[in-house]
Specification:
By secondary structure, the chain is of the alpha/beta class. The chain is built from ten helices and twelve strands. The strands form three sheets. It has a six-stranded mixed sheet with strand order 6-7-8-3-9-10, sandwiched between helices. The model has no long low-confidence stretch (mean pLDDT 94).
């Protein structure tokens, strides 16, 4: 579990996050929602130790996140950023193999199991056909799926994904979200995802955290969020709620 207390983050004299208390439970599929500039990526980077904790505390399974050795933390937390860095000189398979380094290191003995894990992750993200292609030569959506495959190969307890479907077409969005949901159900790995599509969030999440201007304005189930008042409080905009004609699931429509 991520346990946050009195977390305050300021960037260029501007308060980006002010979270007195927030818990993200282990084994859950959690989606973080909010307008642009609401602090979603800052929160995700803080959880992933990509940004220091300037004030307050962030605990992982009861321990300050800064107290973990890097390799031990990488066995707990895998992170895919919103803006993907370049990876020059690596083909897609070599890049995905990097996910196993927390477990084997640069000089450890690689087992067939490691190669099987990498192959399964690549297949799950439909990038096996690009195994020999330089990762920086892939399209934006293909690179995004390759990064997710690398994170899957890491087999961490928590998988943090900052807008993982933003560059994907609708078919691949559903494929990725279905795989993440199945992974969560079957293995118990905690999925923490930033999304912009409230309906996609409601379809897959079992916990939703809503941020607005750096503060938590919603925390609960999709059923609790999918109503006009909570959505208006999160986005500052009015919505109508209708039922999906096939599944009867609540769908939010912008007014």
């Amino acid at each position: 579990m991520f346990d946050i207390h009195d977390l305050k983050v300021t960037v260029e004299n501007r308060a980006v996050l002010d979270l007195p208390e927030l818990q993200i439970l282990a084994g859950r599929f959690t989606v973080i929602l909010g307008q642009n500039g609401s602090g979603k990526s800052t929160l995700m980077k803080t959880l992933a130790r990509q940004r220091p904790v300037p004030q307050g505390s962030v605990l992982l399974n009861g321990k300050p996140i800064g107290s973990f050795r890097q390799a031990d933390f990488a066995k707990k937390v895998a992170f895919v950023p919103q803006h993907l860095p370049e990876a020059p000189g690596l083909d897609t398979r070599s890049f995905c193999i990097l996910g196993r380094y927390p477990w084997r290191g640069a000089f450890g003995r690689w087992l067939q199991r490691d190669h099987d894990i990498v192959a399964a992750a690549m297949e799950a993200m439909n990038v096996t056909g690009f195994a020999a292609t330089q990762i920086d030569a892939l399209s934006g959506g293909e690179r995004q799926r390759a990064w997710i495959a690398m994170a899957l190969a890491q087999q961490a307890e928590y998988l943090l994904l900052d807008e993982p479907v933003s560059a994907l077409d609708v078919t691949h969005q559903i494929d990725v979200m279905e795989h993440l949901a199945r992974l969560n159900r079957e293995t118990g790995v905690a999925i923490i995802v930033i999304l912009h599509d409230v309906n996609l969030a409601a379809r897959y999440a079992d916990q939703i955290i809503g941020l607005r201007r750096g503060r938590t304005v919603f925390q609960g189930s999709p059923d609790m969020l999918m109503a006009p008042e909570p959505l208006a409080g999160l986005y500052g905009h009015s919505f109508s709620i209708v039922s999906h004609p096939r599944t009867a699931q609540a769908v939010a429509l912008s007014n």
